[in-house]
């Protein structure tokens, strides 16, 4: 008992000491969001703490180049934090005040063993069967994992299938939750950048990655991804124990959520969280491993804002495809924004099956499925 306690204290002290030796070079990248204006709806976008000259979205794109300002490090990667012998704790970063900083959320998994809000359950996909840390069973996603082995298994297996098409392709997992997609990618030997605005989600992904000894393959980002940096308003569940529907309160999504779910499911007040953009991600050293990427994005109706923050991202990286949650964009202005941007970047929408897909281009987007696969036109394959 005493030996276990001393070992745990050693890990914590060692971990905290290591943080003092890691510094990131300050950068000051200002990204002015270009917003798309769709005349037929005239929906005003919610003000945020980032000042813009217009609250409408404009189809015209800004081609201003992002300043090449690499973060100063002594190696292509930030030093990884060490846990027990042979195990690596993932690096976790946050973009705050135009700087990338170590967020210091990730801790050794041994801290969470036997905690009721960190149960270990079997997680099974085409990448294999392992145990991961989930939330308590009052969280819908976690309860499904316990019962069925995975949440939205078909989507996870399709991500695995896409990654296996090219050994040099890695994953960017936006809205990672407890990290199902990133963990699956790591299990087949791929690297991932996992992004989430909720601290508890980051803690769970870190603990699972450390426990499974795949921490060197996953980098955690604790931010909202949006069209510009600064802060955004995030709404949590009323119980603080269900993490699947936390959402950025903008562009009318709160009204849509209230119509679908009981108003008592969510907290009335929102919490300010730090935001970053996909263009900001280009500045972290880990991106050197992400020249060719597949993207999974599930951020409860904020996907259009994430894409609006990718002016340079789609120019610099070879994006091989995107799986995007679509359900929250039905009958919203955001659907037109997404379709305009994806057409500009030469992607087509598909209904996805296990290894094939059906072209949705000729189908009205309000009839599209819950998740849509976007593929570059040059790489489209017939069913």
TrEMBL record:
Signal peptide: none annotated. Residues 54-86 are annotated as: Disordered. Residues 173-339 form the Methyltransferase FkbM domain. SUPFAM superfamilies: S-adenosyl-L-methionine-dependent methyltransferases. Gene3D superfamilies: Vaccinia Virus protein VP39. Residues 57-70 have a biased composition (Basic and acidic residues). PANTHER family: METHYLTRANSFERASE, FKBM FAMILY PROTEIN, SLL1173 PROTEIN. This is Methyltransferase FkbM domain-containing protein. It comes from Mytilus galloprovincialis (Mediterranean mussel).
